[in-house]
User: Which sequence fits this backbone?
């Protein structure tokens, strides 16, 4: 078997446009779900296992070998993402009639969880892109769907979600970017902050104020790159998520045709929040992938590193730590998958469950990755080791798509309005 | 061409798994261990699907022998582009002792039944490393074989196969019908796409028993013991080349 292993690890010649670039020099970061109790394929249907397998393989072959480089060089991996789109990852829960894959929220969660083991930052961007494509697919009319969705699903064009402003983060409904109707155009003025992909993407889904104060005055407009009056701020320097650029998006008398209005005036906030329900499951799924990879990295390190005459795996404290990490991982996974099913079925508890999932999972998974770094000791702090990148990349999941504090607001409100 | 290709796929322990020997030394632990399609079988499926895309063959049929779980492996082949599958049901003790001889008898019987023109297999499985099934199948059918293929081309009714052999590359021309076994550099298997995985659900997998094919799956081999490879011993440092030569002579190595 050793001889075959060596052969299988030989370097392949050539790669095709939709074939794999297989560096079979085995990447030790990608142990594909090899630990029965934390196996992410437990309880899935055969079809879901197939989806997961493709995603894991893609993550191991096309993403993981580059994740450090993408982070250090701050590269937006357009080619890798387009390869992912060719497999159907560009519009996973978008309707097939406009180029999407038409899968369920649970299928989507499984896929992002697996992809995230290869690179959290890139997968998180892909999930944001998916969210925007879904919003246009669901709330757009047929012309809008046919104009934007096929290119988004193939990632011929990339999308950004623009809600946050310098003055309105958690208090999103107080946003100020105005859109005044003039003839057959809306004239946009204002600034959006922290926009993922901003400046490098082509399609911007922008929440802006067409009416009075509060959520009911907000509408959703699709703005295309190159529209006069659309410009971008400097590229932000971030702790993580470095494979996607983050910039302010600036509107100065930017004229957008009324045909780019998604839904009706005043529906924008609703559209934004519905997009975010799915977005929260996706972000939580990305955290899961990072935590899964980190648990396996920590375990492998413990089996190799020796101190006091024995491997770390003999230390009861560390055994218990690892057990706690694994338990939190499985609990988190179950919650996210339940929330995904609830959202898919349109259950009344779906919004609360998505918030609970985002809150619990992003917190727990950060703790898991952080523990994994600690278990690596000094090596965990070096950029040569992947665990620090998982920690840095998922830290922001506790902040964006609704801070974990806002998640608590949503859950409390749901509990208290019932009485 | 109205050719039909039979592709054998084997479900093996995933290549990334750390193998552990069972405490009773009768085999390796397979319960709860991740399994996937043998990497060389993936290459075989890819080659068959490529031939279909070039319109050189009409139908690709994926075959696997084993218990219920091998249907996962057949589905993977279907998701990569095979048209239909055949599941030869072998389970329990019979499955534990299933080896190349029995599988090649099954494949030979199926080739006749399905009127296949070409059989593509992986050159060997990564669990037993036998490298026998392709050769035995060809012998049972009295078909020519192109093993360790790194390139396959159909020219009229002949197959041009470039083989990777110890001395280098050998090119042979064999008549169809034939058996080909895939080596590492034959191609790079594609990822299944999400739409193809969903289409694969609708493709048919037929169930067949070895008895229906007139094949006796009892084994003529008995596994006596399975052990881990010996632990690597420490080496010895020597000062000069003469010392090295002397030590090698002492150890009977030269």
Assistant:
């Amino acid at each position: 078997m050793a001889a075959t292993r060596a052969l299988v690890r030989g370097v392949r010649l050539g790669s095709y446009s939709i074939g794999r670039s297989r560096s079979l020099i085995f990447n030790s970061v990608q142990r594909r779900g090899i630990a029965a109790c934390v196996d992410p394929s437990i309880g899935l249907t055969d079809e879901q296992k197939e989806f997961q397998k493709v995603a894991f393989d893609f993550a191991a072959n096309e993403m993981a070998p580059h994740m450090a480089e993408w982070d250090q060089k701050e590269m937006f991996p357009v080619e890798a993402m387009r390869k992912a789109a060719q497999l159907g990852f560009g519009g996973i829960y978008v309707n097939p009639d406009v180029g999407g894959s038409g899968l369920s929220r649970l299928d989507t969660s499984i896929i992002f969880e697996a992809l995230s083991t290869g690179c959290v930052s890139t997968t998180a961007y892909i999930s944001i892109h998916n969210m925007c494509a879904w919003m246009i697919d669901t709330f757009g009319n047929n012309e809008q769907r046919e104009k934007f969705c096929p290119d988004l699903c193939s990632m011929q064009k990339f999308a950004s979600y623009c809600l946050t402003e310098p003055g309105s983060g958690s208090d999103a409904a107080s946003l100020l970017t105005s859109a005044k109707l003039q003839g057959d155009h809306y004239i946009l003025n204002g600034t959006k902050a922290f926009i993922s992909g901003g400046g490098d993407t082509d399609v911007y889904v922008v929440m802006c104020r067409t009416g009075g104060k509060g959520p009911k005055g907000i509408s959703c407009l699709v703005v295309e790159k190159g529209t006069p009056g659309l410009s971008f701020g400097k590229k932000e320097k971030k702790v993580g998520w470095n494979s996607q650029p983050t910039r302010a998006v600036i509107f100065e008398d930017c004229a957008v045709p009324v045909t780019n209005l998604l839904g009706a005036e005043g529906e924008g906030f609703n559209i934004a929040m519905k997009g975010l329900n799915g977005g929260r499951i996706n972000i939580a799924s990305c955290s899961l992938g990072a935590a899964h990879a980190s648990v396996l990295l920590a375990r492998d390190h413990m089996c190799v590193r020796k101190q006091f005459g024995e491997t770390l795996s003999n230390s009861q404290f560390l055994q218990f730590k690892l057990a706690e990490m694994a338990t939190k991982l499985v609990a988190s996974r179950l919650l996210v998958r339940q929330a995904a099913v609830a959202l898919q079925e349109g259950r009344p508890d779906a919004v609360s469950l998505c918030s609970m999932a985002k809150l619990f999972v992003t917190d727990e998974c950060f703790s898991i990755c952080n523990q994994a770094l600690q278990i690596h000791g000094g090596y965990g702090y070096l950029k040569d080791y992947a665990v620090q990148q998982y920690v840095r990349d998922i830290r922001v999941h506790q902040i964006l798509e609704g801070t974990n504090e806002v998640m608590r607001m949503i859950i409390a409100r749901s509990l208290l309005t019932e009485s | 061409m109205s050719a039909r290709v039979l592709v054998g796929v084997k479900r093996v322990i995933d290549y990334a798994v750390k193998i552990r020997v069972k405490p009773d030394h009768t085999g390796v632990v397979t319960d709860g261990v991740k399994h996937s399609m043998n990497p060389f079988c993936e290459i075989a499926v890819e080659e068959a699907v490529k031939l279909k895309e070039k319109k050189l063959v009409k139908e690709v049929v994926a075959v696997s022998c084993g218990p219920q779980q091998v249907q996962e492996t057949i589905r993977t082949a279907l998701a990569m582009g095979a048209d239909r599958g055949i599941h030869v049901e072998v389970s329990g003790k019979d499955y534990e002792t299933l080896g190349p001889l029995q599988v090649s008898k099954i494949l030979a019987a199926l080739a006749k039944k399905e009127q296949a023109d070409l059989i593509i297999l992986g050159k060997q499985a990564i669990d037993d490393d036998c490298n026998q099934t392709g050769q035995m199948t060809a012998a049972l059918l009295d078909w020519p074989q192109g093993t360790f293929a790194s390139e396959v081309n159909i020219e009229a009714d002949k197959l041009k196969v470039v083989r990777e052999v110890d001395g280098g590359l050998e090119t042979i021309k064999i008549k169809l019908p034939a058996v080909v076994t895939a080596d590492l550099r034959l191609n790079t298997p594609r990822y299944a796409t999400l739409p193809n995985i969903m289409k694969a659900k609708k493709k048919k997998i037929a169930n067949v028993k070895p008895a229906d094919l007139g094949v006796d799956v009892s084994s003529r081999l008995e596994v006596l013991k399975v052990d881990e490879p010996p632990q690597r011993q420490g080496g010895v440092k020597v000062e000069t080349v003469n010392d090295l030569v002397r030590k090698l002579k002492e150890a009977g190595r030269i």
